[in-house]
């Protein structure tokens, strides 16, 4: 489980952007396309803006990239809390990604229906093959959640590779998330974590005793793929 630790947040972002480019090139060479599940939340916005910048925008064959989402909040796609809207403004629109290459969760449906529809959309994209994203990008909450796999939620026990709805008690709101088995089918999974506020969670997930109910990100262990952590020194400060 490679851990890439950088001095600054900017260095972390460039390190992961370079990794993204390399994975895109490899996937397109091998399979003719690159499928990526994007992370939501605040941390990845800077990564998406970097990928859309002059420094990186010409380094990826964007016309062969297909975008999915690791999780989504149960809000309309125009809501400021929408992961889709964040990715749209930071990455998809600046790169002029065609709508047919973007698979957003239909949050206009009830949560259970939205999850089922997203599972179907993923299965249809991969056809008769196992649904294996080339890269799944993930963040880490200070409570050790990733995607919308929150502590002590029923979705942690789901054994199918799918999208599922989950009610998060602390937020009194639904979310739709890829399950751990779906994430673990990926060719590669990359965590992006920075800031001293995440140091305790990083230590618990990587060095702590296994307790998936308390530290859901421990569920992430690709079965036939690779797992990378991209950290700044502040986030990695408490690692053994």
Key phrases:
alpha/beta, about 20% strand, 6 helices, Rossmann fold, about 240 residues, three-stranded antiparallel β-sheet
Can you walk through the features of this model?
This protein has 240 residues and is of the alpha/beta class. It has one domain (3-232): Rossmann fold. Helix content is 30%, strand content 19%. The chain has six helices and nine strands; from the N terminus they run βαβαββααβββαβαβ. The chain has a six-stranded parallel beta sheet with strand order 1-9-8-5-2-3, covered by helices on one side. Strands 4-7-6 form a three-stranded antiparallel beta sheet. Helix 1 crosses helix 2 (43-51). The relative contact order is 0.18.
In summary, what is this structure?
With 240 residues, the chain is α/β, with parallel strands linked by helices. The chain has helices spanning 9-31, 43-51, 83-92, 111-126, 180-184, 199-207, and strands spanning 3-6, 34-38, 65-69, 71-73, 135-138, 163-168, 173-178, 188-193, 226-232. The chain starts with a strand and ends in an 8-residue tail after the last strand.
